[in-house]
Amino acid sequence: MFFLTPVLVAVICILIAWIFKNADGRSMEGRKGETRARAQTRPWVDEDLKDSTDLQQVEEDVDDWQESEENVEHIPFSHTRYPEKEMIKRSQEFYELLNKRRSVRFISNEQIPMEVIDNVIKSAGTAPSGAHTEPWTFVIVKDLDVKHKIREIIEEEEEINYLKRMGRQWVTDLKKLRTNWIKEYLDTAPVLILIFKQVHGFAANGKRKVHYYNEISVSIACGILLAALQNAGLVTVTTTPLNCGPRLRVLLGRPANEKLLMLLPVGYPSQEATVPDLIRKPLDQIMVTV
Predict the structure, then answer these.
(1) Can you tell me the mean pLDDT for 216-243?
(2) Which tens digits make up the pLDDT trace of 67-84?
(3) How far is Cα 106 from Cα 257, in angstroms, rounded to an integer?
(4) pLDDT in tens, 108-132
(5) Phi, psi angle pair for 15, to nearest 5°
(6) Please, which residues have CB within 8 angstroms of residue 258's CB and are 6 or more apart in sequence?
């Protein structure tokens, strides 16, 4: 009969502990490997595109942040109410106008009235924002040299994006649009609008002001801007130059609290302009009524 001596029991316990420790180590390495693999499959995530509202930091560094105004006068709301038939007519006409909007990558170098640009930017500035912080900056670029420098920065990064960062699936999904890292419209478009989100603001006394939901707020403003451009008879294509934000911010002399969200080349379509023959989803696929 086999008997376990105290020494043998101790050896077995040590052996079992060693086995479990190694198993945990391999499991941890496996999890780390999975994390690295996931990070490598999504290398295109741009830090500039993240919402930087950090409420915990605000609470911790409360002395560095400016308190908002508590008392704002409230005034009667002025509203225009249309008869039902006119409401339907206006909403249908507005839909038909926006349904003609397309992403146009072939833009003429013909100059456009700057008063129109002023008006569409003012329209974008009517967007709602978290606590009415209005966390947007619209940079208008007309200078030929600056536009070309912007193109050089973007094409350099976009080539890397297409060949390495974006991954095979994303590049494949874009093939039907016949797009690549060559962005000729950055030179030809008479105006480039670069939209920056202000991750925080500054009060007159130099203290930082919280900009709540800054990315959502600026994205809403971008939507209104696209509608305003369409209404004015101009074309554009929405571009989000991945990994270009810091270099473009330095080029344009923007402060560190501003992060590039979107770039819009704006102008008239060129005579040879084409667009993909795409079909939008019908109403029953985008709306649910409860």
Answers:
(1) 96
(2) 666 688 999 999 999 999
(3) 33
(4) 999 999 999 999 999 999 999 999 9
(5) -60, -45
(6) 137, 196, 197, 198, 199, 249
Average pLDDT of the segment spanning 189-212? 93
Alpha carbon distance 231, 245 (integer Å): 29
What tens digit of pLDDT does each residue of 18-30 get? 666 665 555 555 5
- Looking at residue 50, its pLDDT comes to 53
The answer to whether residue 284 scores a pLDDT higher than 90 is: yes
**What are the residues facing 136 on neighbouring strands?**
197
Cα 198 to the chain's mean position, in Å? 12
Burial of 194 from C-beta contacts in 10 A (0-12 / 13-18 / 19+): buried
- Give the separation between CA 56 and CA 67, rounded to whole angstroms: 15
Query: 90-112: b or e for each residue (b if 16 or more CB lie within 10 Å)?
Result: eeeeeeeeeeeebebbbbbeeeb
Give me the sheet containing 136-141, strands edge to edge. Answer: 136-141, 191-198, 258-266
Mean per-residue pLDDT over the chain, rounded: 85
Q: Which long-range contacts (CB under 8 A, 24 or more apart) does 38-46 make?
A: 41/167, 42/167, 43/164, 43/165, 43/167, 44/161, 44/165, 44/166, 44/167, 44/170, 44/242, 46/240, 46/242, 46/243, 46/245
Averaged pLDDT, 190-199: 97
Q: Is the dihedral of CA 214, 262, 157, 177 positive or negative?
A: positive
